[in-house]
Design goal:
Order of helices and strands: HHHHHH
CATH architecture of one domain: Orthogonal Bundle
Radius of gyration: 36 Å
Length: 170
């Protein structure tokens, strides 16, 4: 039983330690107040490689570069807003995990909803289109009915030869 618990604990260790993976010891600032600010800001910045993960928990090289850049700018005296403005100027509003709602970010905010609505509309049209009634075919004329009866009885039509692939004799 003890071995099972130990094995389970070892399997769960990576999940429990996941937030600590990304920030490496050489990135951590000596000033705990600045480090806390840098960690908080790193939670708001999107990893441009991973896309829906903050740079604070990303192992991508670009995320590491951005974490170092944030810390360098904070040591230089920049405020959190200054650092965000610098990153937005360099990478666009997409770098923020919570981009502002403005004309240039409408696609980020409303694009997924629009795609979902268009997809739902397409599915609705696809499935409702099969229920449309098709008009009944016109009834056969007397001449067409007589020809059909002859064909069904196995008689050949005058001027045709059943052995030829084209059906007509030459």
């Amino acid at each position: 039983m003890r071995a099972l618990l130990l094995a389970l604990a070892l399997m769960m260790a990576p999940i429990w330690a996941a937030p600590a993976w990304a920030v490496e010891p050489d990135e951590i600032l000596d000033d705990p107040v600045l480090e806390a600010r840098a960690r908080a800001l790193s939670q708001e910045i999107r990893c441009l490689v991973c896309q829906n993960e903050p740079i604070d928990s990303s192992n991508a090289d670009l995320a590491r570069d951005l974490r170092i850049l944030i810390r360098e700018r904070m040591v230089a005296g920049d405020s959190d807003d200054d650092v965000k403005a610098f990153l937005v100027a360099r990478y666009g509003d997409y770098v923020l995990l919570d981009p502002p709602l403005k004309l240039t970010t409408y696609a980020l905010w409303f694009g997924p909803v629009a795609i979902l609505l268009l997809g739902g509309f397409g599915v609705f049209r696809f499935f409702s289109g099969g229920r449309r009634s098709t008009p009944a075919p016109a009834p056969l004329s007397a001449k067409e009915r007589a020809r059909l009866d002859r064909l069904l009885d196995g008689e050949t039509e005058p001027g045709t030869d059943r052995d030829e692939p084209g059906g007509e004799s030459s």
